[in-house]
Amino acid sequence: MIQVGDKIPAVTLMEYSEVEGNGCSIGPNPVDTATASAGKTIALFALPGAFTPTCSAKHVPGYVEQHDALKAAGVDEIWCVSVNDAFVMGAWARDQKSGTKVRMLADGSADFAKATGLTLDLTARGMGLRSNRYSMLVKDGVVKTLNVEGPGKFEVSDAATLLAQARG
After folding, report:
1. Which residues are within 8 A (CB) of 34 and not within 5 positions of it... i.e. 6 or more apart?
2. CB burial of residue 33 (10 Å; 0-12, 13-18, 19+)
3. Tens digit of each residue's pLDDT, the chain (168 residues)
4. Of the candidates 26, 23, 59, 38, which has an alpha carbon nearest to the alpha carbon of residue 147?
5. Domains of the chain, earliest start first
6. Which residues neighbour 80 within 8 Å (Cβ) at sequence distance 6 or greater?
7. C-alpha angle with apex 101: 96 to 103, nearest 5 degrees?
8. Which one, out of 29, 61, 74, 151, has a CA that is 20 to 30 A from the CA of 135?
């Protein structure tokens, strides 16, 4: 499992963009995690799936609400990573009204989840291999804090916890 002091996995995630700009076309665009995190402080949180109850009611809304406070604490970007495709993540971003506050990054083949060692097998529930729920503060590609939830819990990966650590 990934630990504090480790580099985040160098994989390509996908991000759905609804507007052209900065070299991004409309639709899914690749995001190389190593390049995208270089020289930045990232508040990264991962969760089992888009449109799922806790993720939609608490996890994403908390980070959208705390966007300004996280920026004031030195966070450059907020990333939400989930084992879904970019089209689903784009639709979820619209539903959650995350706008430019939270980058909704698709880990469609669970490459990031597998590389972190933070997978969750939900095959029995018809959802296949997913990401565990966690958050981390990443500086220049290196994990500075890591908050992994216990099974079925939502206690330490919330925006308030990561904000306190960013201010730390």
Report:
1. 7, 8, 10, 141
2. buried
3. 999 999 999 999 999 987 666 666 678 999 999 999 999 999 999 999 999 888 898 999 999 999 999 999 999 999 999 999 999 999 999 999 999 999 999 999 999 999 999 998 988 888 888 999 999 999 999 999 999 999 889 999 999 999 999 998
4. 59
5. 12-167 (3.40.30.10)
6. 45, 46, 47, 59, 60, 63, 89, 98, 102, 103, 104, 105
7. 80
8. 29
Cβ-proximal residues to 15 (8 Å cutoff; 6+ apart), any chain: 24, 28, 29, 31, 86, 89, 103, 104, 105, 106
Amino acid at 6: D
Q: Which two tokens stand for residue 54?
A: 């806790």
Contact 43, 162 (CB under 8 A): yes
- Residues marked active site are found at 55
Question: Model pTM?
Answer: 0.94
Sort strands 128-131 and 41-47 into parallel, antiparallel or unpaired.
unpaired
Q: What is the greatest pairwise CA distance in the chain?
A: 42
* Alpha-helical runs (H) found in the chain: 33-37, 53-54, 60-65, 67-72, 86-96, 111-116, 159-167
